[in-house]
Amino acid sequence: MGFITNIVFQQITFFLLFVSINGNPICAELNESELRQMLAGYSPNALTLGISTGSQSTPSNTSCPILYGAGAPQSVRSTCPWYNVENTDYTRYPQTLLEARCYDCDNCITELPPSGLHAVWECERVLSRVWVLQINYSSCINGIYQYNAVQIDLPTACVCGRPRKT
User: Fold this and answer.
1) Which residues does UniProt assign to the signal peptide (predicted)?
2) Which residues pair with 97 in a beta bridge?
Protein backbone atom coordinates (compact mmCIF):
# COMPACT_ATOMS: atom_id res chain seq x y z
CA MET A 1 0.00 0.00 0.00
CA GLY A 2 2.87 2.39 0.77
CA PHE A 3 4.33 1.91 -2.73
CA ILE A 4 1.05 2.88 -4.46
CA THR A 5 0.56 5.84 -2.11
CA ASN A 6 4.09 7.02 -2.95
CA ILE A 7 3.39 6.80 -6.72
CA VAL A 8 0.10 8.70 -6.36
CA PHE A 9 1.85 11.33 -4.20
CA GLN A 10 4.60 11.73 -6.85
CA GLN A 11 2.01 12.09 -9.61
CA ILE A 12 0.08 14.72 -7.64
CA THR A 13 3.32 16.57 -6.83
CA PHE A 14 4.33 16.49 -10.51
CA PHE A 15 0.87 17.75 -11.51
CA LEU A 16 1.04 20.60 -8.99
CA LEU A 17 4.51 21.55 -10.20
CA PHE A 18 3.22 21.51 -13.75
CA VAL A 19 0.21 23.66 -12.88
CA SER A 20 2.10 26.07 -10.65
CA ILE A 21 5.66 27.36 -10.61
CA ASN A 22 6.59 29.69 -7.76
CA GLY A 23 2.90 30.05 -6.94
CA ASN A 24 2.07 31.42 -10.43
CA PRO A 25 -0.32 29.38 -12.54
CA ILE A 26 0.94 28.16 -15.88
CA CYS A 27 -1.09 29.73 -18.65
CA ALA A 28 -1.69 28.71 -22.21
CA GLU A 29 -2.14 30.87 -25.28
CA LEU A 30 -5.25 30.53 -27.41
CA ASN A 31 -4.92 28.35 -30.49
CA GLU A 32 -4.98 29.68 -34.07
CA SER A 33 -8.69 28.99 -34.56
CA GLU A 34 -9.65 30.77 -31.33
CA LEU A 35 -7.45 33.77 -32.16
CA ARG A 36 -8.95 34.01 -35.67
CA GLN A 37 -12.46 33.93 -34.27
CA MET A 38 -11.64 36.54 -31.62
CA LEU A 39 -10.02 38.89 -34.14
CA ALA A 40 -12.89 38.45 -36.63
CA GLY A 41 -15.20 39.91 -33.97
CA TYR A 42 -13.34 43.21 -34.26
CA SER A 43 -12.75 43.27 -38.00
CA PRO A 44 -14.02 40.63 -40.44
CA ASN A 45 -11.27 41.47 -42.95
CA ALA A 46 -8.45 41.93 -40.41
CA LEU A 47 -6.80 38.69 -41.45
CA THR A 48 -6.60 39.63 -45.14
CA LEU A 49 -4.74 42.91 -44.70
CA GLY A 50 -1.03 42.56 -44.56
CA ILE A 51 -0.60 39.03 -43.29
CA SER A 52 2.53 37.45 -44.58
CA THR A 53 1.99 34.25 -46.54
CA GLY A 54 5.56 33.88 -47.70
CA SER A 55 8.99 35.06 -46.79
CA GLN A 56 9.51 38.77 -47.48
CA SER A 57 12.78 40.59 -47.09
CA THR A 58 14.30 43.89 -48.06
CA PRO A 59 15.43 43.80 -51.69
CA SER A 60 19.17 43.90 -52.25
CA ASN A 61 18.76 47.15 -54.21
CA THR A 62 16.36 49.75 -52.77
CA SER A 63 17.36 52.55 -55.14
CA CYS A 64 14.55 54.23 -57.03
CA PRO A 65 13.33 51.88 -59.82
CA ILE A 66 12.66 54.46 -62.55
CA LEU A 67 12.89 51.69 -65.15
CA TYR A 68 11.12 48.36 -64.71
CA GLY A 69 10.54 45.22 -66.72
CA ALA A 70 7.42 43.74 -68.28
CA GLY A 71 5.09 42.18 -65.75
CA ALA A 72 6.35 44.34 -62.88
CA PRO A 73 3.83 44.51 -60.01
CA GLN A 74 1.90 47.69 -59.19
CA SER A 75 4.18 48.27 -56.22
CA VAL A 76 7.10 48.79 -58.65
CA ARG A 77 5.15 50.59 -61.44
CA SER A 78 3.78 53.18 -59.00
CA THR A 79 4.92 56.81 -59.06
CA CYS A 80 6.10 56.02 -55.53
CA PRO A 81 7.24 52.41 -55.66
CA TRP A 82 7.36 50.26 -52.53
CA TYR A 83 8.33 46.80 -51.35
CA ASN A 84 7.02 44.74 -48.46
CA VAL A 85 8.97 43.47 -45.46
CA GLU A 86 7.84 41.26 -42.63
CA ASN A 87 6.99 43.00 -39.36
CA THR A 88 7.05 40.32 -36.66
CA ASP A 89 5.96 40.70 -33.05
CA TYR A 90 5.61 37.46 -31.06
CA THR A 91 3.32 39.13 -28.49
CA ARG A 92 0.77 39.99 -31.19
CA TYR A 93 -1.70 38.07 -33.33
CA PRO A 94 -1.16 37.90 -36.19
CA GLN A 95 2.52 37.65 -35.33
CA THR A 96 3.74 38.58 -38.81
CA LEU A 97 2.30 41.36 -40.96
CA LEU A 98 3.56 42.79 -44.23
CA GLU A 99 4.76 46.37 -43.95
CA ALA A 100 5.29 48.60 -46.99
CA ARG A 101 8.53 50.53 -47.33
CA CYS A 102 9.12 53.14 -50.01
CA TYR A 103 12.04 52.67 -52.36
CA ASP A 104 14.76 55.32 -52.04
CA CYS A 105 13.16 57.85 -54.39
CA ASP A 106 13.79 61.43 -53.32
CA ASN A 107 10.65 62.53 -55.13
CA CYS A 108 7.77 61.00 -57.10
CA ILE A 109 8.56 59.39 -60.45
CA THR A 110 7.18 61.22 -63.48
CA GLU A 111 7.62 61.09 -67.24
CA LEU A 112 9.17 64.55 -67.16
CA PRO A 113 12.81 65.04 -68.13
CA PRO A 114 15.56 65.41 -67.16
CA SER A 115 15.68 63.07 -64.14
CA GLY A 116 12.25 61.44 -64.30
CA LEU A 117 11.56 62.69 -60.77
CA HIS A 118 9.12 65.43 -59.81
CA ALA A 119 10.85 68.56 -58.53
CA VAL A 120 8.62 69.04 -55.47
CA TRP A 121 6.21 66.17 -54.84
CA GLU A 122 7.40 63.50 -52.41
CA CYS A 123 6.67 59.88 -51.63
CA GLU A 124 5.06 58.94 -48.34
CA ARG A 125 3.67 55.78 -46.81
CA VAL A 126 -0.07 55.09 -46.57
CA LEU A 127 -1.02 53.99 -43.06
CA SER A 128 -3.99 51.68 -42.57
CA ARG A 129 -5.57 51.11 -39.15
CA VAL A 130 -5.49 47.35 -38.48
CA TRP A 131 -6.91 45.40 -35.55
CA VAL A 132 -4.53 42.98 -33.83
CA LEU A 133 -4.64 41.02 -30.59
CA GLN A 134 -1.92 41.83 -28.06
CA ILE A 135 -1.26 39.07 -25.53
CA ASN A 136 -1.18 40.17 -21.90
CA TYR A 137 1.30 37.84 -20.16
CA SER A 138 0.53 39.45 -16.80
CA SER A 139 -3.14 38.45 -16.95
CA CYS A 140 -4.02 34.77 -16.64
CA ILE A 141 -7.63 33.74 -16.09
CA ASN A 142 -8.62 30.07 -15.83
CA GLY A 143 -5.25 29.00 -17.26
CA ILE A 144 -5.56 31.19 -20.40
CA TYR A 145 -3.57 34.33 -21.13
CA GLN A 146 -5.79 37.31 -21.85
CA TYR A 147 -5.64 39.30 -25.10
CA ASN A 148 -6.34 42.97 -25.77
CA ALA A 149 -7.69 44.07 -29.14
CA VAL A 150 -5.76 47.14 -30.31
CA GLN A 151 -5.47 49.05 -33.55
CA ILE A 152 -2.07 49.70 -35.06
CA ASP A 153 -1.02 51.85 -38.01
CA LEU A 154 0.34 49.50 -40.66
CA PRO A 155 2.11 50.99 -43.72
CA THR A 156 0.43 49.31 -46.72
CA ALA A 157 1.66 51.31 -49.75
CA CYS A 158 3.47 54.47 -50.83
CA VAL A 159 1.86 57.38 -52.65
CA CYS A 160 2.94 60.61 -54.28
CA GLY A 161 1.93 63.66 -52.32
CA ARG A 162 2.37 67.37 -52.46
CA PRO A 163 4.50 68.80 -49.65
CA ARG A 164 2.73 69.30 -46.33
CA LYS A 165 1.89 72.90 -45.50
CA THR A 166 3.56 74.12 -42.34
Assistant:
1) 1-23
2) 51, 87
Is the CA virtual torsion 132, 101, 72, 120 positive or negative?
A: positive
Q: Among residues of the chain, what percentage have pLDDT more than 90? A: 45
- In 3D, which of 72, 49, 71 has the Cα closest to residue 59? 72
pLDDT, position 14? 35
Q: What is the mean pLDDT of residues 93-102?
A: 92
Q: Return the closest-CA partner of residue 124 out of 109, 102, 104.
A: 102
Q: Which of 44, 51, 49 is nearest to 130 (CA)?
A: 49
Asked if residue 43 has pLDDT above 60, the reply is yes
Helices (H), the chain: 2-19, 32-40, 74-77
Tell me which residue of 106, 101, 98, 125 sits closest to 66, measured CA to CA.
Answer: 106
Are the C-beta atoms of residues 122 and 161 closer than 8 Å to each other? yes
Instruction: Taking residues 136-142, report their average pLDDT.
Output: 95
Q: Using CA atoms, how far apart are residues 51 and 20, in angstroms rounded to an integer?
A: 35
* Model pTM above 0.85: no
The continuous run of DSSP H or E covering 43 comes out as none
Q: Where is pLDDT greater, at 83 or 55?
A: 83
CA atoms within 13 A on the CB side of 86: 12
